[in-house]
């Protein structure tokens, strides 16, 4: 018995010795077996086995503490590593690598909200993966462990991902999980200041995650979240600094351009004030712009040119100048053939235009330099003209005044004087008469003179009214243009009338008288403050006109009905005559025409489609009846063989 007691005590001491020496677990079992062989039984054997169990428990606790200490040391190393400045991408790589190593897992990754901001996620910074199916892998909204973690803000895990139905699956992610052979997946929230991501670790075997493992990964995620916040802020700061650096560089470049523009403007003004001629100024402009330059007068006449101007280039310049006409916007305008135009203006006085063949695109500094060059040209031309602008204005007033006197002047003299001003009296012109409240105001005369000069016409005051002779064929449009030009002046809108067109110096006086009668009629009819032409006033304009154009009146009133009858052999004109002859009664008109009333109704409806639905209004009906009667008289006289030209009167 003493010998067995000694054997049990020796076994207990051996177990304690193994515990103290951190022996392997199989050695503990060997000590118990040795005690059995030596005959230890009963209570002594139970004591030895209990000692083994206690020793193994103590050893397991020591091992867990050692593992926990090692994990904490790894977390400290991770925190120290993340304390250094990193980009967002590098920070995510450090987090996933340390998470995988910390748990000895097979794969780790991070999911972050997708850039599309639609509630979905994208995988980032995978570590340990062996396939490429994860490239730009995107999880839809509410799918995967990431969505569940984001909803609960707590760690979640599954021992076998593909067979777990406790969360919503996504086909793309399941396909990748299957390709990687992953089963157990742990996901913990990766907190950030603005959004919430998720840190995942996964094994290629089915297993459970212990509380210590979950706690370790959760602590790593907390540390990583803080580091990720700082990395995001660092990236944003770097981006802002880069943008600020770009703004500084642009500001410096803009300053250099401004200084260069100021130097160019100073050089151009020095040339002008030094008394240079236009050719020298244009050459300086060409040198600074690096493109051919042409300076033209107000009517397209070339004043000076510089650069490699071939015959074709000169033709293109001339064609562009002719097509453009007068420009008043000081900004450069792109014409055809890559030519840019900018007007040369002295106040409201148009002195010409500057043309540059600079291609289809124009930089901001080049456009500003063009404007400076045009201003310098305006100063030069104004200095050279001296009082020429005033003298030219007097010539224009005197020319139109001579055209309005009853004593005729020699035609060749009038045409020669007009050509000096760039006006061709043999071309179509319209006469416009404007009447303002009281005597012609100085502002109205000045505004009308500017309008006439801009349109290359003439202006003067005659018998208390403002008279303009403007190029064109539409007197109504010209009257509206002058009315709009003078309407902004104090004293109320003017009354404006127009007549024409005229293409002979001797016809200007007749056009003026016709427009003046139209103006008097507008005043008598209470239409002051408006604009109109003799053509627009219907039969009243017909009566006012010195040269009665009955054919035009008939065509403008019922021409569509006449053409319809002629083309389709209908009787719309005859129906109109019957309708008016019977006092506007479709029933009586049908009896007179020996047709059904519905036929008359359909014809009247067709007439409305042709000349307008308001043709039965009293004023329209009066004009239509007058046109019908004139048409009938012309037809009867024509059948008698009398000359058609004698019937207009």
The rounded Rg comes to 50 Å
Number of helices: 21
Distance between the termini: 163 Å
Which oligomeric form is depicted? Answer: single chain
CATH topology description of the largest domain? Beta-Lactamase
Spatial ordering of strands, largest sheet: 3-2-1-6-5-4
Short description:
By secondary structure, this protein is α+β, with helices and mostly antiparallel strands. The protein contains 21 helices and 16 strands. The chain is elongated.
Topology:
Layout: H1 2-20, H2 25-37, H3 42-83, H4 88-103, E1 107-113, E2 121-127, E3 138-139, H5 144-152, E4 156-158, H6 171-180, E5 184-191, E6 196-203, H7 211-273, H8 278-289, E7 293-296, E8 302-306, H9 311-324, E9 333-334, E10 339-346, E11 349-357, H10 364-385, H11 388-403, H12 411-420, E12 429-435, H13 442-454, E13 458-462, E14 465-471, H14 475-487, E15 495-502, H15 507-524, E16 531-533, H16 538-544, H17 550-568, H18 572-581, H19 586-593, H20 597-611, H21 618-639
Parallel strand pairs: 15-16
Antiparallel strand pairs: 1-2, 1-6, 2-3, 4-5, 5-6, 7-8, 7-11, 9-10, 10-11, 12-14, 12-15, 13-14
Helix pairs in contact: 1-2, 1-3, 2-3, 3-4, 3-7, 4-7, 7-8, 7-10, 8-10, 17-21, 18-19, 19-20
